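Objective 1b: paired records.
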Amino acid sequence: MAKQQPQRPQQAPQPPKKAAPAPARRAEKKDSFFNRPGNRELIFDKQNFIYMGAGLLLVLLGLAAMSGGAMPDPNKWEPERIYSFRRITLAPIMMIAGFVVVILGIFKKKATTDVTDNAELYQ
């Protein structure tokens, strides 16, 4: 006699799975950190970048003025090399002035010539 195999219960055919819809594209690009919301204009003007560059240059010049001071003879101490006016007074003043100019460059507002430019921002 032939062996009978047990019959499996018949399962109903499953409908095909629905694919997830494709992600929708945004109509506008997300506003950048450097742009005003809803506007493609940069926050900083050319003049702001000039101020910030000049301030950075002052800071770097102050750091350069502060550098140096190595003793030519390790057995002889020369305090005027390290404690000179340039290193103790002038260089820190140049650096602080550079930081102030950079901060002024950041906070300086754009010169608006047309009143309607500002009105568009508040609508």
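Objective 1b, second protein:
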Amino acid sequence: MKNNNVLAVVMLVLVFAVSAVIPACNVSTANLSDVKLCTEKNSSNVCDASASTFPASTPVIYCSANLKNAPTGTKVTFEWKHGSESLGKADVETSSGTVVSNFTTGGAVEPGSYSVTVKINTDNATPITKEFTIE
């Protein structure tokens, strides 16, 4: 009889522990694909092709991606970096479709290695990083 009581208590504790953890998880079936960098978007607001090198005189660099299986209110973060230094983040809240961010250089940025990381703000999302060079 004592073993049954111990088992019942253990099961009860386990149920409470799992129910406390599950609401804290933010998982989604949303996913990103076709992440591209460009200097001009097409009429559909996306980059036609992806570039990896830009002249220092480029005024704006765009990053577009396809967001699929995303409910309304899904947040996507774009983080632009020069080397390891963050240049800023942009949060876009949307549903499935195209997501776009831009890096305004003003045509006067330091040459070097840059990157943009695109991530859906969920616990199970894998970020996608596109590296590029400004010459």
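The chain is about 15% helix and 45% strand. The beta strands are 31-38, 53-54, 60-68, 74-82, 85-94, 97-104, 112-120, 128-134.
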